[in-house]
Amino acid sequence: MSHVITSVTVEIEAPAAFVWDVLVDYPRYSEWNPYTIAVETSLELDDRIDLTLNNPDGSAGTFVNREFIRIVDPPHHLRYDTGDEMEGIFAVRDQWINELGPDRCSYYTTDTLSGEHAGLVMELNGEWVRAGFDSVAHALKARAEALIAGAVT
């Protein structure tokens, strides 16, 4: 049985390609991303992507979640998954940017969990993941719109 976590969909007043560039500008994540505070990857297919997140219980500290790049389709679709990193759980994250016009787009993300421990992970951390995804969607919108307006550099 699969479980899907879906973020809110935000409309962004910026071209899809511009938003894509913000999304994959990993060295600057600490400046705007409240959920994934650091990322290390080459963004090459099948290479690792190490995602640094704050602890889900709110305690001090962070942890690194290692996943693997599967789809890089700018400016529309980015996919990575956990591969064999976690016994009993397989997670696939998709991030979508959809063009709504030359200077507008939308963004949302999903995480599809499967495996024998997927239900437990959903019970323990599903709401934390959804809230984190929502915070990324809103922060990406704010960051892209501020950059395109020249309000930040």
From TrEMBL:
Origin: domain of life: Bacteria
CDD domains, per the entry: SRPBCC_4 (cd07822)
Spans traversing the lipid bilayer: none
Name of the molecule in the record: SRPBCC domain-containing protein
Organism of derivation: Aeromicrobium ginsengisoli
